[in-house]
Amino acid sequence: MQKFTLSILFSFLALTCMAQVRDSMVLHTPTGDIFGTLTLPSNNKKVWDAVVLVIPGSGPTDRDGNNGVFVNNTLRIFSDSLAEHDIASLRFDKRGLAASEKAVKGESELRFDTYGADAADWIKLLKKDKRFKKVFVAGHSEGSLVAMLALQKENAAGFISIAGTAEPADVMIARQLSWNPNNPKVMVDSMLLIMDSLKKYGHYDHVPTGIYQMLFRNSIQGYVASWFKYDPREEIKKLKLPILLIQGKKDLQMDTIQAVNLKAAQPKAELVFLPMMNHIFRDVAGNTPQENMITYSDPEAPIAGQFVEAVVKFVQEHSGKK
Fold it and tell me: What average pLDDT does the segment 294-303 reach?
């Protein structure tokens, strides 16, 4: 693990309601600062049984769960909900994104492994913090795999995988490309060729213009290739801690077989299916994609109650509270 200097900024940012207080937290690394928000239950305690490190999903997803296209505050609401149950949490802007943008000089330097190392450093920092008895890690979507890598470097009291994939990223992308009837065959074939080259050789020299450049431009090929090399089923097998797998049955981005396959790879894990929940933790009453996608742009909608209950139950059981 890379050497780093850690510090905490103790100035309170906001008293958001009677249930929680948000505090600023910073991870100093040799290449720049990574910024996070620590959400504490507002009950005048000095020590809490548990804190949950929340790792965001893929792409430019920030500490609140927003990505520049959709604003839904998913992760912020999740943290606030945990605080209502006397559980603290830490969520952060990934290296190279939002407040942590200057922690990397350029996207060509990013590697998937770096995200895992950063998350491990956050775990280490939280374990040293005398305010928390136990540290848990929750990874959403791509963040599930990031958490698996981090937990191999720095152990924790428990791992919560939320809508995590069991497939290597290239397999998942290839399947999604092939399933979409609107994707021309020539485009799909070209994408598969590029991905195959990235997985085998780590680069592809003649990326066409347009969407191909968006996904596989030279400056991000190193990151993509480093992501492709991991199989979540193999990584989860390496973990020796309590694991909770959560999957919504109305998730348009991750099908239920992913959770089933993670469970098969790690039989001791607990698997919870939530029949109404979608990818961003919202309950969806209808069955159409339109009804599902509406929630992606609703920052005020509450997250699924059963989801919060499952996480709280797991944390309490493994923090000695119950």
Answer: 96
In whole angstroms, give the CA distance from residue 177 to residue 289: 18
Q: What is the pLDDT of residues 102-153, one digit of tens each?
A: 999 889 999 999 999 999 999 999 999 999 999 999 999 999 999 999 999 9
3-state secondary structure (DSSP) of residue 134: strand
Instruction: Name the helix (H) or strand (E) containing 178.
Output: helix 169-179
Q: What is the mean pLDDT of residues 268-292?
A: 97
Angstrom distance (rounded) from CA 170 to CA 193: 11
Query: Rounded CA gap, 62 and 165, in Å?
Result: 20
Answer yes or no: are the C-beta atoms of 303 and 77 closer than 8 Å. Answer: yes
User: Do the beta carbons of residue 285 and residue 301 sit within 8 Å?
Assistant: no
Query: Residue 321, Cβ neighbours under 10 Å: how many?
Result: 15
Q: What is the mean pLDDT of residues 34-59?
A: 94
Burial class (CB in 10 A: 0-12, 13-18, 19+), 17: exposed
Residue count of the chain, please give it.
Answer: 322
pLDDT band at 320 (very low <50, low <70, confident <90, very high): confident
Strands 88-92 and 158-162: unpaired
- In this prediction the pTM is 0.91
d(CA 248, CA 232): 19
Helix (H, G, I), strand (E, B) or coil at 80: helix
Residue 101 tokens, joined: 């943008």
Q: Which residue ranges make up each domain of the chain?
A: 5-168+230-319, 171-226
| C-beta of residue 278 within 8 angstroms of C-beta of residue 295 | yes
Indicate the CATH number for domain 5-168+230-319: 3.40.50.1820
Average pLDDT, stretch 189-198? 95
